[in-house]
Amino acid sequence: MEQKPKKRTIKFSMYWMYAIIGIFLAGLFYLDDNSITKEVSYSDFEKRVLDGGVERIVVFTNKNQAEAYLADSVASTIFHRSQFTQGSGQEAKLLTDIPSADKLQDKIEQWKAEGVFNGDVKFEKGSDFSALLWSFGPIILIIAFWIFAFRRMSNKDGGGGGVFSVGKSKAKIFDKDGPIQVTFKDVAGLSEAKTEIEEIVEFLKNPQRYTDLGGKIPKGALLVGPPGTGKTLLAKAVAGEANVPFFSMSGSDFVEMFVGVGASRVRDLFRQAKEKAPCIVFIDEIDAVGRARGRNPNMGANDERENTLNQLLTEMDGFGSNSGVIILAATNRADILDKALMRAGRFDRQIYVDLPDLNDRVAIFNVHLRNIKTDESLDVETLARQTPGFSGADIANVCNEAALIAARGNKKAVTKEDFNNAVDRIIGGLEKRSKITTDEEKHAIAVHEAGHATISWHLRYASPLIKVTIVPRGKALGAAWYLPEERQITPSQALLDEMCATLGGRAAEELFLGRISTGAANDLERVTKLAYAMVVYYGMSDRLPNLSYYDSTGQEYGFSKPYSEERAKDIDAEVSRIINEQYERAKKILTEHAEGHKQLAEVLIAREVIFTEDVEHIFGKRPWVSRTDEIFASRKEQGKQLPEAPAGNGEAESEAGVEDVDAVDVASDVKQSDEKPNIPPVPPVAGK
Fold it and tell me: 170-226 pLDDT, tens per residue?
């Protein structure tokens, strides 16, 4: 259907008002003849003429008025010195009403005959413009300003949203010729999510293929996943691929300070969508308006957000028909969305966009390395293995940071070292070599970090070591990097090994320094949370087996707890037992390898940084092969290739940023891993 050309409208600007005021003032300036006028009676006018104080007379024939121009000597006696100054060149006039121009002419001829008046006489038609300007000019300006303000409020002049347009939808419309040129080829990984999204786009392009079999297009699809995994990028790809109008807006765009605006904007959005159907509507961060209703009953009966949600529910699957309108939405808080919004018929599909696995990270790295000049020795597979748990946005940030580091060093290409420094920079923060550290503190930090490295090297499920440093970085005085295995499930022994390795720093301080310090604050926090998760959520306690107090619905327990005070004491006892056992285990391992730990600490003090090769030189090779190494070895044996970069324009995988690493101003290891269990908040426990 051909769109009618838009009518060109004249936009009213505030500068117009300035121009009108300027013209008004200029007219007053030019119409003002630098004279002073006094209105008198005709008898007084005649008296001044007879006294000889009038130099010339101007008669206005159409107004029956006359002006008498006075001599300076006479004018100074009539006007006050503040109004008229003799010799200043200012003209003084007397204005009077006359019976008629003919009678005044006869009178002037008589004055001339008597020799009383010998000045010039001029007959002309007077102008009423100056009087009109003074009388009606301010009124005209007020009316013009009122019209301007009204047009601004009603938004009819093409300006921004006004008072009368506050209920209009703020959705942006994109088409195939718009600024978004992202396609599915630019989305690396996410193969399952792309398959479902591509099917929706294919239905819009070729609906008969599905309708012939009685199929119906899904009404909505909800993209769910952690921040930075590419949910918004998938929506951009849909906008770039679909040959239909694409409406895009954020969930917060429905929220306004005025009552009823959110519901009005929902109605206006769907009205526009129905007019352009078939089309796609994308609502980013839908949790801003889609939260479960009834969570805050004390906030008032008229909840604006709930009214907006009710209208959205009605529009998506209410009494009316929205055929041809597909709703895409994205959120990372699906657990708090209203159940009515999640049901089939509104959002028929929930597409989970997870953090990329190893193969996906390789593909994502290849996408972001297209426009970066890299060294030939760079191994993308190694980069992907060193960044477990990184989202697409994190990987984009690593590539960009590596390019900046290389440019800072005036290099011609980005090397492996630049990428390693970029990963370190993102995880741990900037190095702070200028931070003042005494020899005693430096030795304590080295002993602490060497304890982590020693224990992790001798545990079956502990993550292999990559790098240990005692150079202050970010808020930490020391840091350790590991290479976690790619696991789908985590056995209890792996959690215990991780707990033991984390306690290695504190155990090393107690054994080899004879004292403990605040350097293990971050380690103890992580260990305590992990122990509580094992007991309260995963049912991994011998004393309290097969029990989980985690509420997966997201409702949580409020101010109550799902167990008694006696059970809370049992939980505390089990947590303490698990932590104490792993602490004693850590001290035992360190005692057995005390000489190796001493050598490792000395190397750390001397060089400040050690790598896997240094630990291997002291302790020998680890007897265990990581699961990730096994996967890559089997892939090479079978001749399988890692995924290549898809063709496209190299758009960023996502626009989200990288979360800050939570560290304390003490020596602590910064260990990033995607194998860590998703530990929810711990419920209240007695004595905590």
Answer: 666 666 566 667 778 778 877 778 888 888 888 877 778 877 888 777 788 899 988
Query: CB within 8 A of 6, min separation 6: which ones?
Result: none
pTM of the model: 0.62
User: Per DSSP, which regions of 61-138 are E strands?
Assistant: 65-70, 91-97, 120-124
Indicate the average pLDDT of the chain: 76
| Half-sphere CA count of 419, side-chain side, radius 13 A | 26
Concatenated DSSP letters of 3-15:
PPPPPP-PPP-HH
CB neighbourhood size of 658 (10 A)? 18
Write down the catalytic residue from 46, 285, 449, 509: 449
What are the C-alpha distances in Å from 337 to residues 385, 470, 527, 559?
Answer: 35, 45, 32, 21
How many Cα atoms are found within 13 Å in the side-chain-facing hemisphere of 430? 5
Residue 193, judged by CB atoms within 10 A of its CB (0-12, 13-18, 19+), counts as buried
Tell me which DSSP letter residue 246 carries: E
* Backbone phi, psi, residue 307, to 5°: -65, -40
At 151, the pLDDT band (50, 70, 90 cuts) reads low
Query: How many beta carbons lie within 10 A of that of residue 265, not counting itself?
Result: 25
**Given this model, what pLDDT does residue 276 score?**
82
Q: Which residues pair with 277 in a beta bridge?
A: none
Contact 133, 28 (CB under 8 A): yes
Pairing of strands 54-60, 246-250: unpaired
Look-up of token digits 């630098």: 34
State in Å, rounded, how far the first CA of the chain is from the last one: 67
* Residue 152 confidence (pLDDT) above 70: no
What are the distances in angstroms from CA 2 to CA 242, 276, 538? 19, 12, 61
Is the pLDDT at 682 greater than 60, yes or no? no
**Which one-letter DSSP state was computed for residue 337?**
B
* Whole-angstrom distance, CA of residue 423 vs CA of residue 669: 15
Give residue for tokens 């970069």: 645
Please report how the helices 492-502 and 521-532 are oriented relative to each other, as an axis angle in degrees rounded to 10: 160
Cis peptide before 278 (omega within 30 of 0): yes
Angle between helices 565-592 and 439-457 (to 10 degrees): 100
Is residue 485 flagged as an active site residue? Answer: no
Neighbours of 12 (CB within 10 A): 17
d(C-alpha 288, C-alpha 251), whole Å: 5
SS3 415: coil
